[in-house]
Specification:
Layout lengths: L1 E6 L4 E2 L11 E5 L4 E5 L11 E2 L1 E6 L3 E2 L5 E5 L4 E6 L5 E9 L4 E9 L2 E6 L5 E5 L1 H4 L8 E2 L3 E6 L4
Parallel strand pairs: 5-14, 8-15
Antiparallel strand pairs: 1-2, 1-3, 3-4, 6-9, 7-8, 9-12, 10-11, 10-13, 11-12, 13-15
Length: 156
């Protein structure tokens, strides 16, 4: 498609082959038709989601350096801590099991820092991603790198 700046008053191109600027009329032309409409610069969308930043995990058997892969035993306390730029209060953290079941944990946020203690009663694979972080909230409220938690059967 060919796009050029267009002067509607004189029905002619403003300058040959010049692209329109924000607010000018533009001629949009292809092989089958010509259309005239206001031209608006594309607006780059800014990600306004509040990032959930995990800075530490304790109590796990092992975890990746970016805290996106965690392994622990069932019935053990795993403590996540990090940064979250929201007002001080307790929030619900929904964790989704591979079966689709949701388990809620309480997250305490104080002065932009959060802690949450997780304890899984049964083994399985659990996840926390943007879908869970924004459950019952407007889409894009929070953002997080997806976390996978492998909970192993405890034999003791």
């Amino acid at each position: 498609m060919n796009i050029i700046a267009w002067d509607k008053d004189i029905n002619a191109a403003i300058e040959p082959n010049r692209l329109p600027v924000d607010g000018e009329f533009a001629q949009f032309k292809n092989e089958t038709h010509t259309e005239y409409k206001h031209f608006y610069e594309p607006v780059e969308l800014v990600d306004s989601a509040i990032p959930i930043i995990i800075t530490n995990v304790t109590g796990a058997l092992m975890n990746s350096s970016d805290f996106t892969k965690i392994t622990c035993y069932e019935n053990s306390n795993i403590v996540f801590s990090g940064e979250l730029a929201v007002p001080d209060r307790m929030y619900a953290m929904p964790i989704r099991r591979d079966t689709g079941e949701i388990t809620l944990f309480g997250v305490d946020v104080v002065n932009g820092a959060f802690t949450v203690t997780l304890n899984f009663k049964t083994s399985g694979v659990y996840r926390y991603s943007n879908d869970e972080a924004n459950k019952d909230l407007p889409a894009g409220t929070f953002s997080i790198e997806p976390i996978s938690i492998d909970v192993l059967r405890s034999l003791s």
